[in-house]
Amino acid sequence: MAPAIMLAADAPRLSSANTGFMLICSALVMLMTPALAFFYGGMVRVKSTLNMLMMSFISLGIVTVLWVLYGFSLAFGNGNRLIGYNADWIGLSDIGLTELWDGYTIPVFVFMVFQLMFAILTPALISGALADRVKFSAWALFVALWATIVYIPVAHWVWASDGWAFKLGVIDFAGGTAVHINAGAAALGVILVIGKRVGFKRDPMRPHSLPLVMLGAGLLWFGWFGFNAGSWLGNDDGVGALMFVNTQVATAAAMLAWLGYEKIRHGACTTLGAASGAVAGLVAITPSGGAVSPLGAIAVGAIAGVACAAAVGLKFKFGYDDSLDVVGVHMVGGILGSLLVGFFATGKGQSTATGVFYGDHSFDQLWKQCAGVFAVLAYSLIASAVLAFLLDRTLGMRVTEDEEISGIDQAEHAETAYDFSGAGGGVAGIATAAPAAAQTRKVDA
């Protein structure tokens, strides 16, 4: 939000408390990328574990460098409604150590590094849809291009004070559109181009380590407090605290709702369902948590839990191979969380805007949310599909069928996640070490 004109005596001063808080939040958001790697890594088969970990980790390297060189300048510099630019921020070349961010009480460097962690995480989210079949070099180039062409402009639209969605009044507290719809739509666009895994809908593709999935989900939940509460850039007025509470509440409600759906539909409450339900709740509350009450957060979480649990089965009905349900959880959860602002916004949180169920029962905010949601979805879907198509026609996006069948870890990284030869050895050792309790996600196929 652009600062108001003020007297020098009234100008904001650097707050050590808010600065320290935001640095901690930045570290928590950074943790979410390796947490995502664990979450995704446990959901794939043994032969793809390292590749899945690396597809997330490489984003830490690529996006960090790009963000310093030009990403922050284009995303948050003063420009126009579509893209920003600030020459002083190219290479972070001319930023004072105590220069404050846009009327807030934290340094520009702190805001820059907090937003960097969002930029790192978002392309990593896409990787879960592409498990088992993408060349690592092609993926690395895709991350660099996608962050530049898709993420940076969308971040400007939604969060920069001169971005068109911000000016329109679209509410996205911490990334329902810019992060989750953006990544989910991109995932759909890419998988429509590169096609299905060998054996999709025929071979069992069970998660090899459900404990690893649960560890990743728990770390994501922990890191998400920094992701959400930190997005208010301080807590002088209590809105950050509201977001913290709503993050916990919605996540709990979504997990319970997902498990309830599983129990009714499939007769069991699975650990994979608990982890996925928690993530669905985190996704849905991300855009809405600063605008709704805790009761509203329960509603947002419960709706997202059931809807995302149902949505993961759509890939079998429509034939797109979303390996780890990025579309079903992140795109669907992001859409729901963003649109539900238009129903549950109380006008007592981050803004005075109210949803259909509050105030004068106007649909005004809902239409604004629809505009933001569908603009980001369409742009990311189309641009990501075009990028994938161009890379596939030039470098080739996929490994060979033989490499996919034998294992992408060995083909792309010359390593394996587990050395079973030291614990029994041979084929028998591998067979006994394979997790007997691994389960396929139960979906409406």
Descriptive labels:
single chain, 445 residues, mainly alpha, Ammonium transporter fold, transport, membrane, Ammonium transporter
- How much helical structure, as a percent, in the residues? 55-70%
Uncertain regions spanning at least 5 consecutive residues: 1-9, 425-440
Percent in strands? under 5%
Radius of gyration: 22 Å
Order of helices and strands, N to C?
HHHHHHHHHHHHHHHH
- The CATH architecture assignment turns out to be Orthogonal Bundle
Give the class-level CATH name: Mainly Alpha
Shape verdict: globular
| Distance between the amino and carboxyl termini | 46 Å
Which superfamily, in CATH terms, is the homologous superfamily? Ammonium transporter AmtB like domains
Provide the domain count.
1
How would a textbook summarize the main sheet?
A: none
* CATH fold name: Ammonium transporter fold
Number of strands: 0
Taking all residues together, what is the mean pLDDT?
92
> How many helix segments?
16
The structural class is mainly alpha
